[in-house]
């Protein structure tokens, strides 16, 4: 059967765009459909605009720190529309670059919503046109969740809305204790907004090393972010024209300008026609795929957040590359999801790779190395923020199996530490590496003695 395309990609985010370009360069006839704007979550309403807002928010601490170095900064004023509009201009510029790159790679861009009709057929919903493809790659990402049973939930906003707010609120209540909750707490509190996190568990950042969770929570509280653990938002009611009355599950009430739902993201599979085409979805509605990103239907593949494996941009890109190598370059390649580093751009920022202390302890005998110190700059600045660094070492092989950092530049540091962890280097090899002085990073190669077992560490 002759198909219209060798590959039809649904979703022009980081993963979809990379797959489309590489497949086209490998000689395939490729189309990519996008229903909103080329760029996807990372570029338009995720990593990129978030990081730019964080840069903007961090100036407040820089101005405070400057005093200890002799500067008087009494003229600092912040204008939200300026930052918001500059950020939007930048994401639009990047979206344009993505478009140019697709055009340069001779990929046909279809600005429409595509849904799957059968294993080789798609429908473009605005025009009703049907097209066929030998392979379909689903790269449609995910969307922010809302608690649909919570009365008044529609009065809350999501991270997507935060980028285009008309005005900066005076106060915000953030539901959730994960990546998005902490990063927006950093943004809003840095910009002077009274910020409250409402988290259902005992301590924020579930899944991260227990020391990191403790350190980050305590430091956020020190800088004035209110963190209420063990509760959820039970109801939101309007209060006057713009304010909201939030009732928590413990009956406590809070008045606020905005409520931000940061309670996770869900795969965008609804209404995509996937199940009708025979594609198996997981319980969470993600496309179930094998290690090569192939679904149970041989011609349909999926990469990125829609597969709900590790929901990070660089992972989606690597899955895209592996897919193209497998299908268009004759080199079956499975992306290895082990030891993927990640960063939370909270304040303090977090970088983590490999096993947490509790995960490693459950697998083998370990040695734990830990240091907590006040970065040099903070001393003159009169800034109490401390850095925590932790290495988890397999006691038998001496391999460093986990690195956890909370503090300034942790996301930058963890990228480099991840090379050593991925390469399987031993603690002796880390120690043989000469320090770079004076840096915070040098502490990573100067941790001499393992700590005694921490009785507070979860077993
Ligand atoms: P996360 O999974 O990181 O956090 C969700 C938070 O919401 C958790 O604290 C969770 O609690 C809580 N939660 C979940 N359901 C409910 C509920 N019904 N009621 C109350 N609380 C609830 O999701 P995010 O939304 O923060 O981010 C989504 C994903 O996007 C991340 O997992 C990450 O993969 C990616 N991301 C990555 C970033 C980065 O790389 N820097 C930045 C932003 C997002 P509990 O812990 O108890 O489950």
**Tally the helices: what do you get?**
12
Distance between the termini: 58 Å
Give the structural class: alpha/beta
Task: Please compute the radius of gyration using only Cα atoms.
Answer: 24 Å
Strand content: 15-25%
Bound molecules: NADPH dihydro-nicotinamide-adenine-dinucleotide phosphate
The CATH architecture of the largest domain can be named as: 3-Layer(bba) Sandwich
Q: Can you tell me the overall shape?
A: globular
CATH topology of the largest domain: FAD/NAD(P)-binding domain
- What percent of the residues sit in helical stretches (DSSP H or I)? 25-40%
Name of the level-1 CATH class of the largest domain: Alpha Beta
> How many beta-strand runs?
22
Number of domains: 3
Instruction: Kindly report the average pLDDT value.
Output: 97
Q: In the CATH hierarchy, what is the superfamily of the largest domain?
A: FAD/NAD(P)-binding domain
Q: How is the biggest beta sheet arranged?
A: 7 strands, mixed
Low-pLDDT ranges:
none
């Amino acid at each position: 059967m002759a198909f219209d395309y060798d590959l039809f990609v649904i979703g022009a985010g980081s993963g979809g765009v990379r797959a489309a370009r590489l497949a086209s360069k490998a000689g395939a006839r490729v189309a990519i459909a996008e229903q909103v704007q080329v760029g996807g979550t990372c570029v338009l309403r995720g990593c990129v605009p978030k990081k730019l807002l964080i840069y903007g928010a961090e100036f407040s601490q820089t101005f405070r720190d400057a005093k200890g170095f002799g500067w008087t900064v009494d003229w600092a004023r912040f204008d939200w529309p300026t930052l918001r509009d500059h950020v939007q201009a930048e994401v639009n510029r990047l979206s344009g670059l993505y478009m140019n790159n697709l055009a340069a790679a001779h990929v046909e861009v279809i600005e429409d919503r595509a849904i799957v009709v059968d294993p080789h057929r798609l429908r473009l919903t605005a025009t009703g046109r049907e097209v066929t493809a030998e392979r379909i790659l689903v790269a449609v990402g995910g969307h922010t969740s809302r608690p649909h049973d919570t009365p008044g939930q529609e009065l809350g906003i999501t991270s997507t809305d935060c980028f285009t707010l008309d005005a900066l609120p005076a106060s915000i209540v953030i539901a959730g204790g994960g990546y998005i909750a902490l990063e927006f707490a950093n943004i809003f509190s840095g910009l002077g907004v009274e910020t409250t996190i409402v988290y259902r568990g005992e301590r924020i950042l579930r899944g991260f090393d227990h020391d990191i969770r403790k350190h980050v929570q305590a430091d956020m509280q020190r800088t004035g972010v209110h963190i209420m653990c063990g509760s959820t938002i039970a109801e939101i009611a309007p209060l006057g024209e713009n304010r909201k009355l939030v009732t928590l599950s413990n009956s406590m009430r809070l008045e606020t300008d905005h409520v931000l739902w940061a309670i996770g993201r869900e795969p965008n599979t609804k209404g995509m026609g996937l199940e009708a085409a025979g594609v198996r979805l997981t319980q969470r509605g993600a496309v179930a795929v094998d290690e090569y990103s192939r679904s149970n239907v041989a011609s349909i593949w999926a990469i990125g957040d829609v597969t709900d494996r590790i929901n990070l941009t660089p992972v989606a890109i690597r899955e895209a590359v592996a897919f193209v190598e497998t299908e268009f370059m004759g080199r079956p390649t499975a992306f290895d999801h082990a030891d993927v580093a990640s960063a939370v751009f909270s304040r303090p920022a977090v970088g983590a790779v490999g096993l947490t202390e509790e995960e490693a302890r459950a697998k083998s005998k370990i040695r734990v190395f830990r240091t907590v110190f006040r970065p040099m700059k903070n001393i003159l600045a009169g800034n109490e923020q401390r850095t925590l660094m932790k290495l988890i070492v397999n006691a038998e092989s001496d391999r460093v199996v986990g690195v956890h950092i909370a503090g300034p530049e942790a996301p930058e540091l963890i990228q480099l530490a991840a090379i050593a962890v991925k390469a399987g280097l031993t603690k002796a090899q880390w120690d043989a590496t000469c320090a770079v002085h004076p840096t915070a990073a040098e502490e990573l190669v100067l941790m001499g003695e393992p700590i005694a077992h921490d009785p507070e560490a979860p077993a």
